[in-house]
């Protein structure tokens, strides 16, 4: 596969530090969560700003996700709250305190009326937006900040989490305790993403030890270590149509790996 390395779209407007990105599943929109407490929706085809939401008073927004089935955006911030906005009307749908410390990640369940959130309070919480945003369950087991969550693409009752405690854990939505845990890295783990291949299901973890590890989701054995970054690895993205893995690091590089051979 031939790859070209050039910008297709560049947004030149000055902005605060970007903490979160999400793509709308239908519209050509990029959702940007900023350190300033603002969330913006950019049209990447027309290269223009569509909407802007002043969410917090200069407290960082660390996670913002589209929930297209309700025309909402779900936001987790350093005010320890979940914020929900209608992205068409820009009206606030809901705001409530979710955790006892800064929030790190929010993820939307692909089918059910659930949101997962994680925090520096070491907890993960499951929220039901159809039941007045009640907390259905609290998941405990990590001993440091819970940085990112990911639903299993083969079984959406299962999700995985990673933490600065160096562990990756696997959970069932019906159980507050982890069903599996692995000491994934010697340093903190910042990101996780599932990878579906013809030979099975895997997940990848990125760490402050500068590496990305590939794990068999059944045996929790590490089958490959991807090395090359020279600073903390903060994000992993799996291409939806091609066998490509994108990794982002504080070394100011994006690296593209073959998801079959794991070559760079």
UniProtKB/TrEMBL annotation:
SMART domains: WD40. One of its GO terms (cellular component) is COPI vesicle coat. The coatomer is a cytosolic protein complex that binds to dilysine motifs and reversibly associates with Golgi non-clathrin-coated vesicles, which further mediate biosynthetic protein transport from the ER, via the Golgi up to the trans Golgi network. Coatomer complex is required for budding from Golgi membranes, and is essential for the retrograde Golgi-to-ER transport of dilysine-tagged proteins. WD repeats lie at residues 11-52, 96-128, 139-181, 182-225, 226-264. It holds the Pfam family WD40. The lineage of its organism: Eukaryota, Viridiplantae, Streptophyta, Embryophyta, Tracheophyta. Keywords: Cytoplasmic vesicle, Repeat, WD repeat. GO terms for biological process: endoplasmic reticulum to Golgi vesicle-mediated transport; intra-Golgi vesicle-mediated transport; intracellular protein transport; retrograde vesicle-mediated transport, Golgi to endoplasmic reticulum. Its main location: membrane. This is Beta'-coat protein. It is found in: Cytoplasmic vesicle membrane.
């Amino acid at each position: 596969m031939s790859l070209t390395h050039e910008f297709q779209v560049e947004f030149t407007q000055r902005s605060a530090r970007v903490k979160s990105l999400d793509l709308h599943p239908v519209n050509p929109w990029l959702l940007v969560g900023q350190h300033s407490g603002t969330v913006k929706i950019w049209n990447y085809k027309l290269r223009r700003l569509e909407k802007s939401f002043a969410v917090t008073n200069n407290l960082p927004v660390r996670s913002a996700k589209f929930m297209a089935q309700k025309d909402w955006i779900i936001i987790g911030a350093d005010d320890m709250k979940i914020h929900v906005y209608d992205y068409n009307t820009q009206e606030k749908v809901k705001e409530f305190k979710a955790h006892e410390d800064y929030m790190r990640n929010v993820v939307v369940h692909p089918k059910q009326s659930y949101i997962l959130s994680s925090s520096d309070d070491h907890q993960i919480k499951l929220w039901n937006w159809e039941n007045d945003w009640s907390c259905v369950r609290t998941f405990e087991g990590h001993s440091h900040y819970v940085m990112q969550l990911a639903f299993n693409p083969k079984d959406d009752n299962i999700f995985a989490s990673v933490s600065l405690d160096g562990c990756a854990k696997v959970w069932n939505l019906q159980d507050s305790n982890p069903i599996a845990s692995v000491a994934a890295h010697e340093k903190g783990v910042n990101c996780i993403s599932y990878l579906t291949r013809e030979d099975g299901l895997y997940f990848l973890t990125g760490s402050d030890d500068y590496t990305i590890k590939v794990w068999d989701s059944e045996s929790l054995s590490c089958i490959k270590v991807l090395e090359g970054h020279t600073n903390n690895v903060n994000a992993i993205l799996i291409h939806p149509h091609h066998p490509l893995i994108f990794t982002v690091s504080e070394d100011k590089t994006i690296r593209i790996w073959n998801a079959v051979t794991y070559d760079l």
